[in-house]
Amino acid sequence: MSRVRKFHQKFIAANGRETQVTCFTISGTAPGPVLTIIAGQHGMEHSGPNLLPEFIEELSRREFAGTVHVCPCANPLALEMDYEFYPEHEDISKIKDYYYSIFRHNYCPWKLGRDDGETLYNMNRLWNDPDAPGIAGQIAQWLWKEICAEANIIIDMHCLQAEKPLIFNSFQKNNAIARYTGIEAVVMCNPNPPRYGAGNLTWQGSRGRNQYSICIEFSRQHGLKESEYELGKQSVRNVMIGANMMEGEVILDRPVWEVPYDSKGTRFRASHTGHIRYFFNLYDEVKKGDRVFQVRDIETLDVLEEGIAENDGILCAVSHLPVIKPGVMPCSVPKANLLAKSGVLLEKLPKDFFNQ
Ligand SMILES: [Zn+2]
């Protein structure tokens, strides 16, 4: 008998467009925790949607304890458009005039972008809310009821624009899970956000006593970064091993750091125009006094300024700009806490972790 149950629900948008959301439940070979993985809430974020079908096949052949629910493509209409959300009440044809550029990252053809205010078209603001509006709200309600409300661990897969993936996490308790992923930076978010921010899946999914939830952000939007798919699958395997759902050991190649909310540390601000050269990679450990970058004059090639770390920390927030200008923040070195060392066996969670 197949251990995979595939099921779906149909939804109709306000403009009449019909869509279907598909979920998979993979039953383990022994009792254990419930893990839910959701991806594709935001339509320009394609890593989770692409790696999860392969991961479902892998799990269907592997022994593991517990149950895994997966929804690879939570927001099919937005994914098809390669846009963050599906604006069902707006003129959808405007997407034809849209092109993405990192230099106008928040530009929105409907003037509903992140710089313009709060839109309830954004599925990841509508979780665990019986009054959530629109097709995005209906999908979120259905997924919450079917695969999220009873989950012990929720992994929500997104993408941002950076050199490497990171994790967003609102609550300290989730770091017990996040440390296994091997994703190098766990960036802590406001634990008490206003209602809009509190509508995100991982905030809602962390509220129960035996519920833990993290958001993995892969590092490319509006494109494919297939080189990260294996990292994504391994991060979930590691969580399952750490949570005693899967046999194996977790030994990480790179350390995992927690960047506290409102973390203190060096915030650089450039004072010249020129080419910038960084001497560390994103999330590398930096020591107080280390030279982090230098800026070179484009005409004379002289070094105009250097960034020296004022504290121990990790390299974060590296700018995408090739030419730095006065006032621009090229990077920062926040003080960070080590969540998991590299090269050592990580201790697993206690067997009764989810039954406390
Ligand atoms: Zn997202």
What can you see in these coordinates?
The protein is of the alpha/beta class and 356 residues long. The protein folds into two domains: 4-259 and 339-355, Zn peptidases (Aminopeptidase, 3-Layer(aba) Sandwich); 265-335, RNA polymerase II/Efflux pump adaptor protein, barrel-sandwich hybrid domain (OB fold (Dihydrolipoamide Acetyltransferase, E2P), Beta Barrel). It is built from seven helices and 18 strands. It has helices at 47-61, 76-81, 134-148, 175-178, 195-198, 201-204, 229-242, and strands at 4-12, 18-27, 30-39, 65-71, 153-159, 166-169, 185-188, 212-218, 256-259, 265-267, 274-278, 285-286, 291-296, 303-308, 313-314, 323-324, 332-334, 337-340. α1 packs across α7 (229-242). The chain is globular, with a radius of gyration of 21 Å. The two termini are 33 Å apart. The mean pLDDT is 97. Zinc ion (ZN) is lined by residues 42, 45, 158.
Explain briefly what this protein structure is.
With 356 residues, the chain is α/β, with parallel strands linked by helices. 17% of the residues lie in helices and 27% in strands.
Summarize the SSE layout with pairings:
Elements: E1 4-12, E2 18-27, E3 30-39, H1 47-61, E4 65-71, H2 76-81, H3 134-148, E5 153-159, E6 166-169, H4 175-178, E7 185-188, H5 195-198, H6 201-204, E8 212-218, H7 229-242, E9 256-259, E10 265-267, E11 274-278, E12 285-286, E13 291-296, E14 303-308, E15 313-314, E16 323-324, E17 332-334, E18 337-340
Parallel strand pairs: 3-4, 3-5, 5-8, 6-7, 7-9
Antiparallel strand pairs: 1-2, 2-4, 6-8, 9-18, 10-17, 11-13, 11-16, 12-15, 13-14
Bound molecules: zinc ion (ZN).
